[in-house]
Task: structure prediction
Amino acid sequence: MKLFIAGDSTAANKLPNKRPESGWGEYIKDFISPNLEVKNYAENGRSTKSFIAEGRLFQIETEIEEGDFLIIQFGHNDSKPDKERHTEPDKDYLENLERFATVAVSAHAMPIFISSITRRKFVDGKLDPNAVADYPQAMKAFCEKNNYPFIDMYKISQDIISKMGDEDSKKFHNYLLSGENDNYPEGITDDTHFSPYGAKMYASIIAIELRKYI
Result:
């Protein structure tokens, strides 16, 4: 059996020039059954719209088989304003999610939707509850309406980051000082992408949640 991942940078495998930025999809294999082959098609910067337009969903369609699983996690880039990626959370975003589900169901595989992991966006000491706009809530409602398997990583990650607080939660993200890493000579403050520590933590949580369906 195979576990396909369709998603954005939070799940993607990273190139050497991006390290130590990490995606949870790189580590999920460490926490699930060795009988599942992980096929990670997640890519930095992709939305549901651009992922489909670039033929990535079609590639999954050519490989997915009965008994496989397809994880779908998008939202961060669907909110971007450019026409290549932007979708409306109550319109074409949902239409695109249905296209992913159809690919899995048509192959007698299982679609599993995962809401976006929160951005680490604090305002006046409190985590913004709308850190990924309306996309996590739209996915949740879509899955409830259509009875699709759903893992609410947005809520889970909001709870974790909120409890950790503004300063301590930085360890989950790609925060580097000037001169600390050759890929980021001037340092970086990144509240979206994960450190290896953060990626592994989220991978372990997703693996636990997946046991409801796999």
